[in-house]
Design brief:
Layout (H helix, E strand, L loop, with lengths): L8 H15 L17 H15 L4 E3 L7 H15 L7 E5 L4 H11 L5 E4 L9 H4 L2 E5 H6 L8 E8 L10 H7 L2 E8 L9 H10 L7 H14 L3 H11 L3 E2 L24 H23 L8 H15 L2 H4 L15
Parallel strand pairs: 1-6, 1-7, 2-4, 2-5, 3-4, 5-6
C-alpha cells in the first residue's frame, strides 16, 4: 500500500526508509563471497532480511522449519559482516546445544574457511588467545551457564543463539546468561518459538530485543490472558503485528519448489576389528544358549534370549560402545564412522 507523505526532506527520508523495510533493502552492499556454499532462493530472502536487520542495528528470530537451512543463513550473515570488516577486528559468538557443538565447528570450518574458530568447550578450554587468534567463539549453553563471567568484557558484532527455545524460561540460568551477552546484533535460531505458552515468546524477545516487549504484568494482561483464556483474535492479531518485523518463519510446504527432490542413498561399510570381535562373541554365546535349550525336550525354548541377542548384535553394528558402555570418542571405533 502506497503511503503519501508531505514533500519535505524529513518526509522523503521516512518514505525511503519505509520502502526499504518493505523490500529489505539497505544502502550497504551485501557480499557473501567468503561463504563456500550456494543459497536457495528462500534462503537468499532470509539473508536479505537478516542483513536489513543488521544494517539498522536490529535483531531477530529466524524460525524456519527444521531442515530449511537456518544454520546456512546464519553463516551467510557472518560472511557478509566479515566482508564489511576490512580490518578483521570484529568478533562473533555462536552458542548452541552441546550435542551439536562439533557439528557447528565442522560447518564453520567447511563453509567459512577464512574465519578462525575458537571452540570454547571441554576441560582445557581457554580464552587466552581468542581476541588475537580467532574470529568466532563457539561454545555451548552449558558452558555459558557455568562460565558466563569468562565472557564478561567481550563485545561481539553478532551473537547467534542456536535452538534458542532452550532459554524459554525467563527464570533460568541460561536466560540470564544470554541476556548478559554484549553484542550489536542478536540472532536466535529455532523451529519452535512457542512450544507451550505465549509467555515463552516474550522470554525470547527479552533476549533478542531487550526492552521491546512490555513488562511482564502488561504482557500478561494484554496478550497471555486474552489469547490463552478468552481466545481473543483481536489481541492475537495485535501480538502478531508486534513481533512480525523481527520474526521470519517459513514452512516446508511454502518452499517446496525451492527444495531438492528427496534422495535415498545406500552406503555399505565393514565392521571394525572391535565390532567383529564383539559380534562373534555375542553370536556364539547366543548359539550355545539356544543349543542347550533345544537339547532339553522337557523345557520350552525361550525366545527372549534370541531377541535380546539380536538387539545386542544390532547395537554392535552401530557402535561397540552401545554394548560395552565406553565413551565413543575415547575408545572403540565403528565402521560407520568411515562413511
Amino acid at each position: 500500500e502506497e503511503i503519501h507523505l508531505p514533500h519535505d526532506a524529513e518526509a522523503e527520508e521516512t518514505k525511503s526508509l519505509l520502502d526499504q523495510i518493505g523490500r529489505f533493502e539497505t544502502s550497504q552492499l551485501l557480499n557473501i563471497s567468503q561463504l563456500k556454499a550456494h543459497l536457495r532462493p528462500y534462503q537468499e530472502i532470509g539473508l536479505h532480511w537478516l542483513w536489513f536487520l543488521y544494517c539498522h542495528r536490529l535483531s531477530g528470530l529466524l524460525c524456519d522449519d527444521m531442515g530449511l537451512g537456518k544454520t546456512h543463513q546464519a553463516m551467510a550473515l557472518l560472511a557478509a559482516i566479515s566482508h564489511e570488516d576490512g580490518e578483521k577486528s570484529k568478533k562473533y559468538l555462536v552458542v548452541c546445544p552441546t550435542s551439536v557443538i562439533y557439528h557447528w565447528q565442522d560447518l564453520l570450518q567447511k563453509f567459512l574457511p577464512e574465519m578462525r574458530v575458537c571452540t570454547y568447550y571441554g576441560v582445557a578450554r581457554t580464552l587466552e588467545h581468542f581476541e588475537t587468534d580467532s574470529d568466532i567463539l563457539l561454545t555451548s549453553y552449558g558452558i555459558l551457564r557455568t562460565g558466563k563471567e569468562d565472557l564478561r568484557g567481550l563485545y561481539f558484532e553478532l551473537s547467534i543463539f542456536d535452538e534458542i527455545q532452550i532459554a524459554k524460561n525467563q527464570h533460568s540460568q541460561t536466560h540470564a546468561a544470554l541476556s548478559q551477552i554484549d553484542a550489536r546484533m542478536r540472532l536466535g535460531l529455532t523451529g519452535t518459538p512457542i512450544e507451550n505458552r505465549i509467555r515463552e515468546l516474550k522470554s525470547l524477545f527479552d533476549i533478542i530485543l531487550p526492552g521491546y516487549m512490555p513488562s511482564d504484568a502488561v504482557f500478561r494482561d494484554m496478550f497471555v490472558q486474552p489469547i490463552e483464556k478468552a481466545k481473543d483474535e483481536k489481541q492475537r492479531e495485535l501480538l502478531t503485528k508486534l513481533v512480525k518485523p523481527f520474526i521470519l518463519r517459513r514452512k516446508k510446504s511454502e518452499v517446496l519448489l525451492d527444495l531438492p527432490e528427496k534422495m535415498e542413498m545406500i552406503s555399505y561399510c565393514d565392521l571394525s576389528a572391535e565390532q567383529k570381535r564383539l559380534y562373534k562373541e555375542v553370536a556364539m554365546s547366543m548359539r550355545d544358549t539356544v543349543y542347550k535349550e533345544l537339547q532339553d525336550e522337557n523345557k520350552p525354548v525361550s525366545y527372549i534370549h534370541v531377541f535380546s541377542a539380536l538387539s545386542s548384535l544390532k547395537r554392535i553394528c552401530d557402535h561397540p560402545s552401545l554394548v560395552e558402555g565406553h565413551d565413543p570418542s575415547q575408545a572403540n571405533q565403528s565402521g560407520k564412522w568411515d562413511l
